[in-house]
Amino acid sequence: MGSGQWSVEKRSSLRSDSFSKDIDDVPETGCLSIIVLGASGDLAKKKTFPALFNLYRQGFLPAEEVHIFGYARTKISDEELRNRIRGFLVDNKAASSKYSDDVLKFLELIKYVSGSYDTEDGFRRLDKEISEHEISKNSHEGSSRRLFYLALPPSVYPSVCKMIRNCCMNKSDLGGWTRIVVEKPFGRDLESAEKLSTQIGELFDEPQIYRIDHYLGKELVQNLLVLRFANRFFLPLWNRDNIHNVQIVFREDFGTDGRGGYFDEYGIIRDIIQNHLLQVFCLVAMEKPVSLKPEHIRDEKVKVLQSVLPITDEEVVLGQYEGYRDDPTVPDNSNTPTFATMVLRIHNERWEGVPFILKAGKALNSRKAEIRVQFKDVPGDIFKCKKQGRNEFVIRLQPSEAMYMKLTVKQPGLDMSTVQSELDLSYRQRYQGVVIPEAYERLILDTYISFLFI
Ligand code: NDP
Ligand code: BG6
Q: To test the ligand 1 pocket, which listed residue (35, 37, 42) has its Cβ within 8 A of the most ligand atoms?
């Protein structure tokens, strides 16, 4: 994982620092330019711009300081990009006039520059636009911050990073910074990931690089450390003596949805399992870190990953949904899996013998991401509990965040019969009125405000 700043770990460090109050990060102010590269794409439309909008609405992107630039090869005007974003932001929403007003004001902050990812011409034009904005905000008298968000397939990261380095670095003599945010999947395999790391590392210092896995920003993923290590209940139960198996499941009820070109190159294992589900797996299975400092969390994650035995062919199932090859951007003979399930086995004292079943699929019958921890049967059972099903602890990451425990209880009434019931913590009911931030809101905020949680 290197010494890079993985968003959740950076957040964690902020939190731990917030306990110890010894943070040495300098508050960052000055003109902020956020540049979304790949602005014509799915991620930009569905997640990046909406997250920026929500940050704007909450006052984290003040109009006096911020400008947002979209960059991609597609030739569209500022207005066309704004219309796309507006379409997504207001789609299916019974928008209040305040909301619509905010959308319009937010869109005014956005400009679009079209250019290629491997020639300097477009990046020079981009740099000119950013500089003009900085000057208009008087930032030549102060520091300026440039955040480049690569909402792009990893194949173009090296050339894009090179262009940024050559043409678009922050030029203020008075401080500020240039940072880049890169998305998963980080390469295709170990070799390409290491190569990518070296290529980006030659262009930027490690503190300038943010590698994002947005699952780490989901509320219930952020909650995993607290849940596991701040609750006495779980401490003695979280092991091979009590747990029969753990399932980490991602399912989506739509297919490639216009992203066949990207998806077919990577497949479901690289798109979802290797990053999102493995991060969740690590948080469920790792030992308690020494503290919440990023390095301590990373070290525990690495240890548990190193204890995973090689996955055997017999414990992997792959599939492809019917109709996948009808996508015009997918080759007719594609073998790329859109569904995968596999068993991970951890060779350590805590987990020996407990299967961790990771499952991910696109175009299935529902959209859900959850962790299911199934407990062993009660020894010497006198109630025939088995009939009711096992004790189970479920953490639903989405939709409708919830945690519930399935337990066996006495069926109310005169009979001494048993039934399965739930202890249910559904966030919507328990935390009424609390708006749970989108994963990307937290993570993007972490890339430019480093003292929020003090
Ligand atoms: P897209 O397929 O929508 O690609 C984004 C943009 O990149 C496109 O609009 C296109 O812009 C450009 N592009 C696409 N393919 C290529 C290519 N082969 N060479 C050069 N440019 C290309 O992908 P997404 O937006 O869905 O994903 C981008 C990244 O974000 C991926 O790494 C993905 O893993 C990650 N991600 C995506 C999420 C999502 O929900 N979509 C969520 C989390 C992460 P143009 O042609 O205009 O230049
Ligand atoms: C992305 C994948 O990382 O995560 C997409 O590239 C997938 O294929 C998306 O649709 C799912 O994210 P979420 O937050 O909607 O579960």
A: 42
Name the residues annotated as catalytic: 276
Per-residue confidence band for 109, with pLDDT thresholds at 50, 70 and 90: very high
Task: Give me 288's structure tokens.
Answer: 């308690």
Determine the distance from the C-alpha atom of residue 173 to the mean position of all C-alpha atoms in its chain, rounded to a whole number: 34
Which ligand is nearest the CA of 116, by number? 1
How far apart are alpha carbons 234 and 228 in whole angstroms?
Answer: 6
Ligand 1 contacts CB of residue 217 (under 6 A): no
Beta bridge partners, 404, equal 394, 424
pLDDT at 4 over 60: no
Question: What does pTM read for this prediction?
Answer: 0.90
- The CA distance from 290 to 288, in Å, is 7
Cis amide linkage into residue 207, ω under 30° from 0:
no
Asked if 70 contacts 84 with a C-beta cutoff of 8 angstroms, the reply is: no
Question: What does the block give as tokens for 322?
Answer: 């019917």
Residue 358 C-alpha from the chain's centroid = 17
Nearest to 363 by CA among 314, 315, 325, 400: 325
CA within 13 Å, CB half, 64: 4
Instruction: Output the CA torsion sign for 93, 94, 96, 101.
Output: positive
What token pair was written down for 425? 């913590």
Atom number of ligand 2 nearest to Cα 439: 14
User: Which domains are assigned to the chain?
Assistant: 32-212 (3.40.50.720), 217-431 (3.30.360.10)
List, in sequence order, the alpha helices (H) in 179-293.
190-203, 219-229, 234-237, 260-268, 278-285
DSSP string of 259-270, one letter each residue: -HHHHHHHHHII
Tokens of 305: 């990953």
> Which helix or strand (DSSP H or E) is residue 101 part of?
helix 97-107
Contact 375, 385 (CB under 8 A): no
Q: Is 61 left (phi over 0), alpha (psi -120 to 50) or beta?
A: beta
Distance, CA 61 to ligand 1 centroid (Å)?
25
pLDDT tens digit sequence for 187-218: 999 999 999 999 999 999 999 999 999 999 99
CA dist., res. 452 & res. 454, Å (int) = 6
